[in-house]
């Protein structure tokens, strides 16, 4: 629609070097993912769709602002969306961003941008914006995100540091380092386990990019899907540190965006993005007008937040990042060139956009159908539910959550061969303890002892602190008469430290204790 209006009004598209770099980075990420995935590119299709979506969002914003929408109106719209999210979060009805930490990062990015809306002698408008900023700050404090606090302080220091005279910048930098160090120590002692957990994740993550993968990466979305596989290898190869075993969790992020980008898009992708950011920041904060300065600070807050979190794995924050870049590129009139009008280009983009919307709509419809099938009473509507699952499998066959659910349903219903195929695909989409246990249990019911044992062992190595994988392994040994191995697992279960006590854990420990008494 935006392209149609642009054609009708004969609005030329003035492109900037930033536009070219954004296009190159996103297209490179998509192409490298397709090359890395070879014949299994479908496994990455949702990640590819996301990057295509970011591409459309970026260029739609570039055409919209300022041709159809003023910068102030666009910023007001973004701020209004943020206030709705804040209200939902504070009233415990948040549905747009579930993770409170990511919500805090999203709100941190909006605060500098909102300052652009302040205008002299417009007291009512300034009062409303001030109330909005207070609400944003309250929501950030409620999330209790340490990374968000560091982000706010770091962004403020960067802004005020740009105002310090050159001869005093060394002293200012020293003061900042002391304050950051003190704050980091305070926040560490507030929640040391969280900090140590991230150190473990970084230690494992640094071992991933090797060989050709170091240059070209493993494909976008790889960390989310397969990081646990590397965590399993880390503990399976002799790392028996008890404190690290207690820290290991079901991990889908490396909590450091430069490291994630290096893993997924390789050194080439990291260099392209670095060059893009260099071009955004090349004039610093001194020579820009107010709008450019605070847009840069909003982008900066996302980047600082990404040093200890995963904002670019959030669709909301990633979209905001590209929107901010697009608005900034539109403000930067220097070195802009006019893209010659080519009917073929606009028609091609329109066709691609239409097809993309068709595919996304089809996926959304299939997802709704799947959710409805899960809510059916299977005792009375089993045939209807199976019909929905089988029909939507073709559309959702690369959705990890759907595959895990579908495979489990097939397993419970006795379709073990079909379940094996589906559950193996689920492990490709998301290598998790739950999927490993489901796959192992399916093999156990098919009387494939070795395969079941291997899946259970993999689950034990993936999250060593979890009792349930050991309990599955214990039961497998008991059923197959392997008394020595069963006792070995029973002792591990009884002696393992319990991080989060629960009724289920107590029941498992009581069961193995009874077995040891009966077979002592």
Automatic annotation (TrEMBL):
Domain O-antigen ligase-related: 132-273
Annotated localization: Membrane
GO molecular function per UniProt: ligase activity
Transmembrane segments: 20-42, 48-65, 72-90, 96-118, 130-158, 170-189, 261-281, 343-365
Pfam families registered for this protein in UniProt: Wzy_C
Membrane topology (UniProt): Multi-pass membrane protein
Keywords for this protein: Ligase, Membrane, Transmembrane, Transmembrane helix
Tagged with keyword Ligase: yes
Major subcellular site: membrane
InterPro entries referenced in this protein's UniProt entry, alphabetically: O-antigen_ligase-rel_domated, WaaL-like
UniProt superkingdom: Bacteria
PANTHER family the UniProt entry points to: LIPOPOLYSACCHARIDE BIOSYNTHESIS PROTEIN PA4999-RELATED (PTHR37422:SF13), TEICHURONIC ACID BIOSYNTHESIS PROTEIN TUAE (PTHR37422)
Protein's recorded name: O-antigen ligase family protein
Organism expressing this protein natively: Pedobacter fastidiosus
């Amino acid at each position: 629609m935006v392209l149609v209006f642009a054609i009708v009004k004969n609005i030329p598209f003035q492109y900037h070097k930033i536009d070219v770099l954004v296009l190159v980075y996103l297209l490179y990420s998509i192409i490298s993912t397709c090359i890395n995935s070879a014949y299994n590119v479908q496994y990455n299709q949702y990640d590819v769709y996301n990057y295509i979506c970011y591409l459309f969002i970026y260029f739609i914003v570039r055409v919209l602002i300022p041709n159809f929408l003023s910068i102030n109106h666009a910023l007001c719209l973004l701020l209004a969306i943020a206030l709705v999210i804040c209200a939902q979060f504070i009233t415990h009805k948040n549905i747009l961003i579930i993770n409170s930490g990511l919500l805090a990062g999203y709100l941190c990015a909006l605060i500098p941008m909102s300052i652009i809306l302040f205008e002299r002698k417009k007291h009512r408008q300034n009062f409303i914006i001030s109330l909005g900023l207070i609400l944003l700050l309250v929501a950030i404090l409620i999330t209790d995100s340490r990374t968000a606090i560091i982000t706010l302080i770091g962004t403020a220091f960067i802004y005020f540091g740009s105002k310090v005279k050159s001869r005093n910048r060394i002293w200012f930098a020293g003061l900042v380092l002391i304050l950051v160090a003190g704050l980091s120590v305070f926040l560490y002692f507030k929640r040391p386990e969280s900090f140590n957990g991230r150190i473990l994740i970084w230690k494992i993550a640094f071992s991933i990019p090797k060989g050709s993968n170091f240059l070209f990466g493993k494909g976008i979305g790889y960390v989310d899907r397969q990081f646990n596989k590397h965590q399993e290898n880390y503990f399976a190869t002799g790392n028996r540190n008890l404190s690290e075993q207690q820290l290991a969790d079901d991990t889908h992020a490396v909590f450091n965006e430069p490291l994630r980008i290096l893993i997924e898009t390789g050194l080439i992708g990291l260099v392209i993005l670095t060059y893009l950011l260099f071009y955004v920041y090349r004039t610093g904060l001194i020579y820009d007008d107010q709008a450019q300065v605070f847009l840069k600070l909003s982008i900066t807050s996302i980047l600082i937040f990404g040093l200890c979190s995963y904002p670019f794995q959030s669709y909301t924050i990633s979209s905001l990042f590209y929107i901010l870049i697009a608005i900034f590129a539109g403000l930067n009139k220097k070195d802009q060139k006019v893209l010659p009008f080519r009917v073929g280009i606009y028609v091609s983009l329109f066709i691609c956009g239409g097809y993309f919307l068709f595919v996304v709509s089809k996926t959304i419809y299939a997802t709704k159908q799947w959710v409805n099938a899960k809510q059916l009473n299977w005792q009375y509507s089993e045939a209807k539910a199976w019909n929905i699952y089988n029909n939507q499998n073709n559309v959702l066959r690369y959705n990890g959550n759907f595959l895990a659910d579908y495979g489990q349903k097939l397993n419970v219903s006795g379709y073990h061969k079909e379940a094996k195929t589906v559950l193996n695909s689920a492990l490709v989409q998301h290598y998790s303890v739950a999927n490993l246990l489901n796959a192992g249990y399916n093999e156990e019911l098919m009387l494939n002892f070795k395969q079941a044992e291997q899946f259970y062992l993999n689950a034990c190595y993936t999250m060593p602190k979890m009792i349930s994988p050991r309990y599955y392994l214990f039961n497998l040994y008991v059923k197959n008469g392997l008394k020595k191995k069963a006792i070995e697992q029973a002792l591990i279960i009884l002696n393992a430290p319990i991080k989060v006590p629960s009724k289920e854990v107590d029941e498992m420990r009581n069961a193995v204790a009874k077995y040891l008494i009966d077979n002592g």
